[in-house]
Request: fold
Amino acid sequence: MNEIKVFSPASIANLSCGYDILGACLDGIGDEITVRKTKNKELKITKIFGQKLSKNIKKNVAGVSANAFLKDIKVDCGFEIEIKKGIKPGSGIGSSAASAAGSVFAINELIGKPLSNKDLIKYAAEGEKAACGSAISDNVAAVLLGGFTFVREKNDIIKLNSPIGLAFTILHPQIEVKTSDSRALIKKIVSLEMMVKQSANLGAFVSGLYTEDYELIGRSMKDLVIEPFRSILIPKFKQIKSASINTGAIGCGISGSGPSVFALSKGLTTAKNVENAMKKIYDNLDLDYDVHVSRVNDKGIKIIKTL
Ligand code: HSE
Reply:
């Protein structure tokens, strides 16, 4: 195999109760990454479609993650990377994670898959570090493993059960929020009382995924710590949240570092009704937006074609 094209999906981090811990993989939205073997042993980004981003491999997250991976493995060729961005940077649905995971996944496949997707997470997280200053694994874990994922710590990442009926509605207001700025908004000290409440929600959420108890999942999707600070960045956040819940969503919160907002519903029909409820609110604003409905993508990143 000399060339591979992969689809690297968007993802939702945090899911309200698991800041930097929980992730979920989406369907249909994502980046396409093509990687080709080259004779000279260089790593290059040759083309980027869809967004204006640096082709410098020390600045572009796909180059940074690929470089980190190539430092640890022996290869006798170089690689050129083409990126077709399907996810806008600063959207809160894992734009940097899709590119960072896509390049390492593609290279690993091209060289005969010496590492598992789980082993690749730490390299993809290096791309995240280049993007926002922290080697966060929540989005890249969801991309590489699919479904719902849990980061206990950097090298201890667990794929969780994914109840079949769940569907996301994602509202993306067309404003860019840099992850580093959004992280800087959060208070660094959390009270003991908050810690207890938030841990209780996180534990119950995971339990709900395994018992497929949708009510419990919904009750646990609370964010007492981060949402109060970040929600000020999102126009009509409170209205969107109330409308989503009133329309039948089991939970609603900020997707990753924002500005996207997600609602989780039992079934695609409810997720589509939530989409309409969100649109009604945003149609009255002078702001462009997109809304997507997506099932949970349990497979994660995938190969589109090989040559
Ligand atoms: N967990 C990270 C955050 C995700 O909320 O900052 C970044 O997309």
Observations:
- Residues 13-14, 19-20, 136, 138-139, 179, 182-183, 256-257 surround L-homoserine (CB under 6 Å).
